[in-house]
Amino acid sequence: MNAPKQILVPADFRNTSLPVTAADIDKTWRTLYGECSGQSFDCKIATCWTIRNRVTLDLWKDGKADWWGEGFVAICIKKWQFTCWMDHNAERIAIATLGDAAAQECMLATLAVMKGLFPDPTAGATHYFNPKIARTPDWAIGRTPVCAIDGHSFYVGVEPGDPKYTKPKT
């Protein structure tokens, strides 16, 4: 069995302006592993940016948790947000290790996006889907994606003002 390659983390990673925990890093790389492990590194970066964009966006400028959750962990595991945690992949990604190249790329993409080492290729997207493997969600009907990477279509502006979403009752 080959020993896994080490991933080097920048020494100043903890000094990022976006506070993250070990749990944030763990849940995010695993989400990428479930959502796009077979895709390019660029797709992993873009997918991770959709998670980060949700973390940093306050939809109704009210300081309260948004409908998709608050923080990396909550956003990744919120029901109906990232299907990899709801389908047959959930067990696979929960027990995944950094012993293969795809998992290592997911970890590297997670660290790079959380640190801001790569610019956001999605122009602030908070939503995406792959039309080759999923039906078009209601929120995407009539919308034009801001970009497409490896078959994933990325979208902005799905939140406030969208007739398909309403502000949750508090």
Distance between the termini: 53 Å
| Percentage of residues assigned to helices | 25-40%
Structural class by secondary-structure content? mainly alpha
Note the beta-strand portion. Answer: 5-15%
Low-confidence stretches: 1-15, 166-170
Helical region count? 5
Tally of DSSP β-strands: 3
User: Strand count, sense and closure of the main sheet?
Assistant: 3 strands, antiparallel
Could you characterize what this model shows?
- It is a single chain.
- With 170 residues, the chain is mainly α.
- 34% of the residues lie in helices and 6% in strands.
- The chain has five helices and three strands; from the N terminus they run αααααβββ.
- It has helices at residues 22-36, 41-56, 72-77, 89-94, 101-115, and strands at 127-129, 147-149, 152-155.
- The chain has a three-stranded antiparallel beta sheet, covered by helices on one side.
- The radius of gyration is 16 Å and the shape is globular.
- It starts with 21 loop residues before the first helix and ends in a 15-residue tail after the last strand.
- Residues 1-15 and 166-170 have low confidence and may be disordered.
